[in-house]
Every structure is written in C-alpha cells, then in structure tokens.
Amino acid sequence: MIERAEGEPFSKEEVGLALRNHGMHLEGLRYPVTPIGMHYLLIHFDIPAIDGSSFELEVTGRVDNPMKLSLDDLKARPRISIPVVMECAGNGRSRITPRPASAPWGEDAIGCSEWTGTPLAAVLRDAGLLDDAVEVLFSGLDRGIDAGVEHAFERSLSVDDALGEDVLLAYEMNGQPLPPQHGFPLRLVVPDHYGVASVKWLRAITALTEPFEGVQQTLKYLYQTSEEDPGTPIRRKLPRALMVPPGIPDFLTRERNLRPGRVTIEGKAWSGYGRIERVEFSSDGGESWGDARLAEPEGPHAWTPWSHEWDAGEPGAYELCARATDETGRTQPLGAEGSWNVGGYCVNAVQRVPVTIA
Question: If 0-12 CB within 10 Å is exposed, 13-18 middle and 19+ buried, where does residue 234 land?
Fold first, then answer.
C-alpha cells in the first residue's frame, strides 16, 4: 500500500519511480528527432541482460509456419526507418486530483525518435497468420510483480492493428543499436498507440484466437471511470501540443522569466488519430486564442512543429497555453477536471506555463 505523508504531494515510492524513469527535457522539443539521452523512459520491472548474439524471436500460436528469428535474420529482412512520437499513457497524470499512485508525470513523458527495423506485417504474413486469429500477443523478457501478480510484461494488438504498415520490429534508435534501457536487442514500435503498446526486450509473438487477458491488458492500462467500471484498454494517443519553455528558468521552481518585447513561442504537436490540423496559442490562460503557424512534420508519425509570435509587452504575470486539434476534430480540454480516471491515463489537458515579464 502506497501512502503519502500528510501535506506531502508525492509518496517516497512515487519519488523513487520519478528518479528511475525520467521525462524528456521540454527544451528538447526544439529537435525534430529527440536525442537518445533526452527521450523519456518508463521501465516497469528490471532491464534484462540479453546476449544479442544468441537472441531469438519466436513467432508462434495460430500460424501455419512457426518461426524463430535471430537478430541477424531480422536485419536481413526489408528495413525501414520512421520518426515516431512515443508518449506514455500516464503523461499528464500529476494534473488530476486525486492522483493515482504511480509515476507522477507532468507533460514530459514523450520523445520522438527515428526507429529502424523490419515491418511486423511481413513477418506475420511469412509465418502464415491463420484466419481464426483475433489478436497478436507481444511478450517481453522483463518480469516482475504488478497488481499482486508475477508476470512477464505482455500486451496484445488486434490483428488489424498488428498488420498496420508502419508497425515495426525495431532494432535501432536514431541510427544506433537499441540502448539497453530502450529494449535491446529488439522492441515493438506501434506508431499511433501510447508507449505501453511498444513492448521492449521482445522475445515472442503469439497469434491468439481469444482476446488476451494478462495483467497489463485487463488490470492495468485501462481507462476506467470508477473502480466498478470494467474499463477499456488504452490505445491511441490523444492530441497534445507542448511549447519549448520560453525565456529563462528559475533554478528551483523552473518558473519562466522574460524581458519585454516580441518573442517567438514554438513547440510540437501530435495525435494518434491523424494529422494535426490546428494549434492555438493563448497568453491569458485560455481566455482568448490565436492560431499558430504549422510546419510539415518529418513523417506521418512524427510531431508537427508550430510557432507563434507573441508581443510580450507589459511587465507582469502571464499564463501561456497551447491547444492542438487533429483531423478528426479531437481537441484538448482546457483543464484536467473532467479527465479523472482510475489509472490516471490519457490526461491531455492544455499545457499551462506561468511566465513573468520584468
């Protein structure tokens, strides 16, 4: 049982999770592709020690041609590289009240790396995926206890999602072999879904005739409006816009400070439901909005650059906000009040950045 001391916003366990699993420095939003060391990390259990030379990926279950593929076998297959925004489903969790006891993310559980690997769909086709398969299960080599159950980390995708053309079996990140903390030697990358779907240290792919009911699918990573709600598994990323921190920070509080004058506010936006159609900027806490300029993303699953010219003329305190809307019309709520759910997932309220002009 995790308990917070009276008057303390975070328990010692949550602080431990925050120290072990870091967010992206938001000034990293300046980069089209996030440097490896800046990319967010969430490691559920331990980083397994894996010998890449003896590694094999097993493809089994409801397939005609079960396979075992070495890392060299996978690298000999067709190879593609794509930039993908990866975001933790718990991003924004610290904005809701009461907050679930878990990694207390602000808005920094993100990154956009270039992943290189071989398409999953072709592997499934070569294995002879059978017509009665309804889901594909992905099993990692990391193991631990969550929700009181010992298990390997596993998640499933529907067959349709697994056959998506840009779903990758990735062995490189930004042109380098996967670092141990990012899943060496092999991980799944599911571009439009939250990061939980992109199973690291991948050891097995299993075609199933029934929906998977493992811990990380049916007990965790569910969107539940109450404890009684059976919930639905977390899937696609909701739209979000974030800004590069403007001005200069106070060391301890990170509060932003600016001189009067015209300043370019810039950032990135993304959605798992398609192209970003609009980003709006506000300097008065969301009372009024102006459209930002959008630039072309590096690819269909990369983040969209945006910028806005702000006349920071009068000294005083301001609250800057950014709001994204995607091609389906999904947009960000102004506040997190209506975003509460049992696990603290999919909280995509607009970013609010206090600044002082002096």
Answer: buried
